[in-house]
Amino acid sequence: MENNESMEIIDVQTVSVTEAQSRAEIDIQISTAKRFPRNAVRAVDNVIALVTKDKDLAKSCVYSLPRAGKDITGASVHLARLLASEYKNLRVMSRIVDIGETMITAQSVCLDLENNNAVSTEVKRRITGKNGQRFAEDMIVMTCNAALAIASRNAILQVIPTWFVQRVFRSAQQAIIGDISTEQLLLRRRKEVLDGFLTNYNVTEAEILALLELETVNQIKETQILTLVGLANAINDGDTTVHEAFNRNKDKVASDTKAKVSEAIQKANEKLRAKRKPEPPREEPPSNVEPGKLL
Questions:
Q1: 212 alpha carbon, distance to own chain's centre
Q2: Are 225 and 193 in contact (CB under 8 A)?
Q3: DSSP states of 220-287 as a string?
Q4: C-alpha R_g of the chain
């Protein structure tokens, strides 16, 4: 006898072994995070103690990008990683999701295991030069690594509270500047920064002055030092390049440097001419007096 009753068909979804393992890992990490919750106040104190004792570490915590006459500053990749390690109970995953003909795309996810809060970010980077030619494989790998680092930084800094990040960031800035209470200390700190650009990136004083829109190195003070230190870190992290930062052309010279130098020279010449007193006009003898005859 046939059973004419309707039968419900259930579609069973298979779960891969890798996915099951990943879920189990996350469940274990969430359980551990609930058992050992973070102490945010102690975490921020620990990071501040680290960056204020080590000047080189403090330098790596800040980046700066001059854009349209303004300095965009913020926490660097290194600071984001340091914050994540001390903040605890975070899971960060990064990967390259696309490598196209001209662009690569990196994706990073930061999961707060305590608060069940996750943020996903994507970063795109060009893999072609100004001439449109695609980068070599080694350069593409370097670009991918830089994009992954930046994507993870952006994700981490969106999960960790702003007050936490800003307290450490301000402490790092103060450590970078150091003691410049006297003119001698300021001169020494300024020289360290300028020599670092010349040695590491072959950047001249003229290019730096053009970037900062200054006339002399004596105008480089606390704010400009922070900008230059942050810019050096941005170049190292892959946020920008020396050519982009200093607007260099094929001859590796800032395109507007010569014009600015010429303008400065012209202004200096005008000031010198203004200081010189005009010579009094020479009196010519009357036309009816014979030459050599006294009146």
A1: 15
A2: yes
A3: --HHHHHHHHHHHHHHHHTSS-HHHHTTB-TTSSBTTHHHHHHHHHHHHHHHHHHHSPPPPPPPPPPT
A4: 31
Instruction: Tell me the CA distances in angstroms from 189 to 124, 208, 218, 231, 274, one per residue in order.
Output: 36, 15, 12, 16, 36
Per the structure block, which two tokens stand in for 274? 């203004």
Give me the residue label for tokens 């010569």: 258
Among 175-189, 195-209, 250-264, which stretch is predicted with the lowest mean pLDDT? 250-264
Question: Which tokens is 92 given?
Answer: 């960060």
263 or 55, which is more confident: 55
194, 217 in Cβ contact below 8 A? Answer: yes
Q: Residue 173: which of 230, 231, 245 has the closest Cα?
A: 230
- Residue 260: pLDDT band with limits 50, 70, 90: low
CA 169 to chain CA centroid, Å, is: 13
Do β-strands 70-75 and 90-99 pair in parallel, antiparallel, or remain unpaired? unpaired
Give the 3-state DSSP-derived string for 66-135, with helices as H, strands as E and coil as C.
EECCEEEEEECHHHHHHHHHHHCCEEEEEEEEEECCCEEEEEEEEEECCCCEEEEEEEEEECECCCCCEC
What angle is formed at CA 163 by the lines to CA 87 and CA 43, rounded to 5 degrees?
25
Among 141-150, 195-204, 239-248, the minimum mean pLDDT is found in: 239-248
Residue identified by tokens 């990071």 is: 47
Domain ranges of the chain: 19-177, 180-275
Q: What is the pTM of this model?
A: 0.67
Scanning the structure block, which residue is given the tokens 């980046």? 63
